[in-house]
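Appendix B, Record 12. Input sequence as logged:
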Amino acid sequence: MYLTHVPSGDLVEVLDQMSLFDPCRERVAGRLHAGEELQEAEQFDKTDLRFPSGEGLPRCWLDPDYRR
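Logged structural output:
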């Protein structure tokens, strides 16, 4: 899955989708897709990620108490 890293505007390939869907995790492993060379994997704050359309991530992926 690819998401946009808001601070840089670059695409991020999410390497562990289960951590993305887990609301108890604040960070997700991913790889920036900028330039021609494959980048090293790093951790990204979920709050800095958006869908390429500009829509934010669902609250149930970010907030463990989303039902309240």
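The two ends are 28 Å apart (CA to CA).
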